[in-house]
Amino acid sequence: MLARSIATFSPRFVLPLAPRARFASSTDAIEIPIDNPYKFHKCEGPGDVVKTSSEEMINAFKTMYTVRRMEQGADKMYKARKIQGFLHLYNGQEAIVTGIEAALTKKDSIITAYRDHGFAYTRGCEIKEIYAELMGKVTGCSKGNGGSMHMYKGDANFYGGNGIVGAQTPVGAGIAFTHKYKKTDNVCVSLYGDGSANQGQLFEAYNMASLWKLPVIYVCENNKYGMGTSVNRAAANHEFYTRGDFVPGIQVDGMDFLAVRNAVDFAKQHAVANGPIILEMVTYRYVGHSMSDPGTTYRTREEVDTVRKQRDPIERVRLKLLKESICTEKDIKEMEKEIRGIVDQAAKDADADPFPEPEQTFQNIFWKEDIPVRGVELCNSYYPKQ
After folding, report:
1. Residues in the chain where the model's pLDDT stays below 70
2. Fewer CB within 10 Å, N side or C side of the chain?
3. CB 148 within 8 A of CB 134
4. What is the rounded CA–CA span in Å between residue 360 and residue 356?
C-alpha cells in the first residue's frame, strides 16, 4: 500500500486560456487543507493537506468557469433549436473533470459516459469544435457524426463519450490493458455515474482488472440521482467506493478541486504499481438528467439552491483565490469577462459553419472508404461517385 502523503504540485496541466492580467500574488507553493476528509476502503490514501500553487489554482478556476459557461451556452442553443437530440449537461460537476486533468498527462487515457463536453475541452478540443459537434457541423471534434454523447480526440487519448449506460467501463479495462502491454506507466480513467453502478459489466471489469492488475482508475460520479431516481432508492449499498469488494476505494468530495486532484494523483501511483482503484466523487448536478428533464419533479428547488450556496465548486476555488491573496475581485471579474467573450464567440463561429455533405452518413463505417452501403430501402443506398 502507498503511504499517506501530501501530493506535490507539478505544472502538467496548462490551460489554452492564458491569464492576461498581472495577478495580486505569485506564490510558488501553498498548502491548503481539503474541505472534507476522505473515506478509505482497503487502502491508505492521500493526506488531507494539498500542496498547490497560484498557477494551478488560477488554471482550475478558469477551466471550471469555462466549462460552466460552455454548458450554459449549450443550454441556450438547445432551447433555440440549434442543437437537437440528446444533451446532458455538466453544471455543478466541474471540479471532477478539472481535478482529474490536473493529475494526468495527455499520455494517460480517459473514457467516460455521455456527460462528456468538459472532458473534450480539458483533453484539448477547442470550444468551437465542441459547439460545432453539438450542432452536427462538419467542423466538430467528431466531424458532426457523434453529437453530444460521442466526442473524441485520439491524439489526446480521449475515447469519448459513450451513450450506452456503463458500456465504457469494460472498454476502460481494455485501454488500461494496452498501457500495461506497452509498459507505458500510464493509466486509464474510466468514469461512470451512480445510475450505472449496478451494471453487471462493471463488476466483470473490476474482476478482470484485478486479476491482471490493470492500471485503471474507476471514477464513480455520484451526483445523487440516476435520471430521476435517488441513490437511496436504487442501490442497497450506496457507498460506491466500497462496491468493488477486493478493489481498494476512496470516497472524495467531488465538489472540491484540490480533493479531486490530490486523490487522482494518489490513485495514478497506486494503479500503475498495484492495479485498479475506485474513486467515488460525491457531487451534484444542478440541471436535469437531460434537456427533457426539468430536474424538479424528484427533488425540490430548495435542495438545488442549498447545494449551489454551500458547495458550488467554482465558488469554493474563488474563495480560496481571495483568501490566499492569489487574486483580487477585480482579477476574477476580468477572467470571467474574458472567458464569457471567448465562449460566446465560439458559439457564433460554430453556428456559421456548414453541415456535412449527405455522403458523410455512409463514411467511417468500414476500413476502406468509398464502397457501396445498402440503405434501409434499396433506393436510398449509397454508391461511390465514379
Report:
1. 1-27, 386
2. C
3. yes
4. 6
